[in-house]
Amino acid sequence: MAGDGTAGAASAPCGRGGRRPTVLVLRALGLGDVLTSVPALRALRRGFPGHEIVLAGPASLAAVTGATGAVDRMLPTRAPGREVPAELPWSGPPPDLAVDLHGCGPLSHRLLERTGAGALWAFRHADMPALDGPRWRPDEHERERWCRLLRWYGLAADPDELCIPAPTVPSPAPGAVVLHPGADSGARRWPAERYAAVAGALRRAGQRVVVTAGPGEEAAAAAVAARAGLSPAEVLGGPEGVPFARLCALLARSRCVVVGDTGIAHLASALGARSVVLFGPVSPRLWGPPTAGPHRSLWHPFPGDDPLRPGDPHGTTPDPRLLRVSVEEVLGAVESLTGRAGGTAGAVLSGDTPRPHASGRPGGAGSLGGEQPAGGGGRPEGEGGRAAGPVRTGS
Known about the structure:
The chain is α/β, with parallel strands linked by helices and 395 residues long. The protein folds into two domains: 8-152, Glycogen Phosphorylase B (Rossmann fold, 3-Layer(aba) Sandwich); 177-338, Rossmann fold (3-Layer(aba) Sandwich), CATH 3.40.50.2000. It has helices at residues 31-36, 38-47, 62-68, 107-113, 142-152, 192-204, 218-228, 244-252, 263-270, 284-287, 320-323, 327-338, and strands at residues 22-26, 52-57, 73-76, 97-100, 120-121, 177-180, 209-212, 235-236, 256-260, 275-278, 295-298. Strand 4, helix 4 and strand 5 (120-121) form a beta-alpha-beta unit. Helix 6 (192-204) packs across helix 7. It is globular, with a radius of gyration of 21 Å. It holds the Pfam family Glyco_transf_9. This is Glycosyltransferase family 9 protein. Residues 297-321, 336-395 are annotated as: Disordered.
């Protein structure tokens, strides 16, 4: 059926035997993947208010899903890299509805089918002709992708509904500019010496700067801080990264966040924080921040490049396009968002002029077209990418 956003829960099966009906959602991926699925999860919550919404994903992301208010419980599930889990630890009666927010199939579709779910919502696949879902498109934004899936089945879904509330805990560095130099692949890591140059310029201009580190990134973050003349106390994170509530408080109450194409960028968007996001092997049209929010996406493809995926997001060295982003440009982007910077700028910015959030939500044009190989269901199933491990500042 071609859903128009009006059928909603009426088209899904109800609970069996008098029990509370269940919707099982598969999204066994990383931090950024979960955050880009928030609009779809919220649509499911509204569409099935009496159902238990169960998300199959890494247990380490329970705090993230809890912040959305859209998930009742986690079903701990994970697989190496971007693989589809071999099994789901589902027990008890089959779910009334299973929703595949993990990939394009067929592996993830079959995984959900094996639970005996009363119905399966997923993109159609040639290997599963009996499944009547919408067609997969490789050229749409990840938030829009999963909202379009749900709209096809009759649920209203808004890709701009990505906000999560800031926590009540205090920020460890209120008003600071937050630099996050980490990323899971070298192709998406802007050079540490450039982060240090940005940090040093901002520090000399009188701004407080902190550097965040995910698991295994402490030494690199400390080196950035030392090179910039920052105190070791301005490095936040340890072997387990930054605790989620503390991280959210830091970002939400920051002056600005400077980050590569990684999970922290999505978290900044979800919290409505000003952000400067640096892109290299993939276009910001794929998984970039909302264009109507207080964000700047910096990207410089070469003439003749593929317009969406010109590089290898899993490469081990910085992508050549990422290296075309200069220190002066980043400082200019920070200045354009905050009114303060640490040096001159001749920034070439690919974001729109910041506008106030509509209805308290970040952004107004979430559907930009495309997907991000570094993210979730946007890649064919079974391909490698970000690990879905602990809540990582660099995932």
